[in-house]
Amino acid sequence: MFWLAVIPSACRHSSAANQSLYNNSFAVVGQKLWNAMHYHLNCIGDREYLKSQLTQFMLSLPDTPPIRGYTPQNSNSLFCWRNDREISSLWVVTQCDGPVKA
Fold first, then answer.
1. What's the predicted TM-score (pTM) here?
2. What does the pLDDT look like over 13-48, one tens digit per residue?
3. Residue 87 carries which DSSP code?
4. What would you report as the CA-atom Rg of the chain, rounded to the nearest whole angstrom?
5. Closest-CA residue to 78 (of 35, 43, 41, 36)
6. In terms of C-beta density within 10 A (0-12 exposed, 13-18 middle, 19 or more buried), how is residue 44 classed?
7. What is the 3-state secondary structure (H, E, C) of 4-69?
8. Are 62 and 33 in contact (CB under 8 A)?
């Protein structure tokens, strides 16, 4: 089973500053990162197996830190790599592997 995190909704009538704080909070960004992860990582139930698979997945992503004087390919975030056509094949998987959540 595939597990998506539910992102809490914000009050639409709050100020732009408060909405910005909300959108950058861990409650929102953490759940967006969880939902952006590879499908097979979201359905692993065993913590140690999740940690090893997450490490392997993160090490498979290119690391392009900003260098003064050079234009980066993207902002080097998980969200940008997910949308990158060359790297997006990392997200394609047909089934869940490893211990599955009950």
1. 0.60
2. 888 888 888 888 888 888 888 887 777 787 788 889
3. T
4. 16
5. 36
6. buried
7. CCCCCCCCCCCCHHHHHHHHCCHHHHHHHHHHHCCHHHHCECCHHHHHHHHHHHHHHCCCCCCCCC
8. no
Closest by CA position to 40, among listed 95, 99, 79 = 95
Range list of β-strands (E), the chain: none
Say whether 55 sits in a helix, a strand or coil.
helix
Residue 77 predicted with pLDDT over 80 = no
Q: Which amino acid is at 87?
A: I
Residues contacting 74, CB < 8 A, separation 6+: 64, 80, 81, 84
Sorting pLDDT into bands at 50, 70 and 90, what band is 65? confident
